[in-house]
Amino acid sequence: MSCEDGWAAINLEMPRRIPRTKHSAQTYWDLIKAVTGTWWSATMLARIALATILIGAAGLAEEAMRAQATEDAAMPAFQMYLTRVGATCVSFLRPAQPETYLGYRIVEQEPERATRPLRAHASHPKAEPAETPSLESPQAPPVPAGEYTDDWQTAHDANGVRFATDKDGVAWFEYPEGEGMTRRLTFRAVADGIEMWMELSSESAIPGAYVVQQCFRLSGETNDEWRHHIALVPELSEYDLWAAEQPPRSLTFVRQGDAWLQVPPVERGVRYDTPAGVELARMQGAESKATAAIPHGLIVRQAADGSSVVGLFWERTTRVSNHHPADCLHSFVDLGPIEAGGSRTVRGKVYWMAGTKDELLEHWRADFAINQSQ
């Protein structure tokens, strides 16, 4: 092989002819030197060519890794699925960890009404105004394979109940409330959780408070198995913790003043009223039945080892509660008043992040900065 053809091979260029290298010819060094006029051996040329191929392969591998990293960065932090149509439940999971997922029930119990608006909402924390997102991609995420995911859906449209989700981490759910009302929730995945918009539209006027219950589900291994179709997050399950250690310890907290207040670890629901909740009770001619009063509607649950934490918050919250046996957290959100033919939209967020409740608190303060005090 000539020097010209050798250099062409090293540079991965096609020569005028196909060169042939016979590695055993290295034992005839004097002949090779005389023919090629070079001091390079055939073995050395072969090694250089092999090194060039390996370097090229490493470059291709690096390019593939960069492409995968770009794809992973573009993937949303969470995907959303309709997991129980009749119970109006959706589930949130991390694509990289599909074995654990949170549940969220949109319609639960009958709304609580009052004839007048609640004035206390004026001082409740809220977010800066933001447009409700819409689905941008026609593609839905794949349903993950799992023991409890066989009935999960990415689209639904029957009997007025509608749901859609896309691969970019946006989903919406629409439900006919009755009496000419429609409720719609929109979800958007962000790094630390799920941003939410809840809209109630009404053909007729709603003159006062209209309070709906939202249920955030955190079932573990020891909860009833049918609940695993909606939520399965053992590290945040109080039932799992109680099965493993006694006396029972609560993982759930609310804010009171400038400190965290730990919710008692009991089977029955424990209720905490915001100023709007206290006002609503008095408007109904009764004293609040809450365990304690709280300044706003943030409620969180932190893993026993402090490694992860979830939280739920809605603007215009009247009360929150910790309720078993669903291992869930509740927010009661006021969507009234509404003029005839009008609507009201409120903002909320589900947090799910690594870290502690104090770190979550800082995220919440940044997200709902208006009227922020505690």
Describe the structure concisely.
With 374 residues, the chain is α+β, with helices and mostly antiparallel strands.
Descriptive report:
The protein has 374 residues and is of the alpha+beta class. It has two domains: 3-73; 76-367. It is 20% helix and 34% strand. It contains six helices and 18 strands. The strands form two sheets. It has a ten-stranded antiparallel β-sheet, with helices on one face. Strands 1-2-3-9-17-16-12-13 form an eight-stranded mixed β-sheet. The longest helix has 33 residues, at 42-74. It is elongated, with a radius of gyration of 30 Å. Residues 67-73 have low confidence and may be disordered.
What is the residue-averaged pLDDT? 88
Biggest sheet overview: 10 strands, antiparallel
Order of helices and strands: HHHEEEEEEEEEHEEEHEEEEEEH
Which range best describes the helical content: under 10%, 10-25%, 25-40%, 40-55%, 55-70% or over 70%?
10-25%
Spans of at least 5 consecutive residues whose pLDDT stays below 50 are 67-73
Structural class: alpha+beta
Helix count from the secondary structure assignment = 6
Strand order of the largest sheet: 4-5-6-7-8-18-15-14-10-11
| N-to-C span | 81 Å
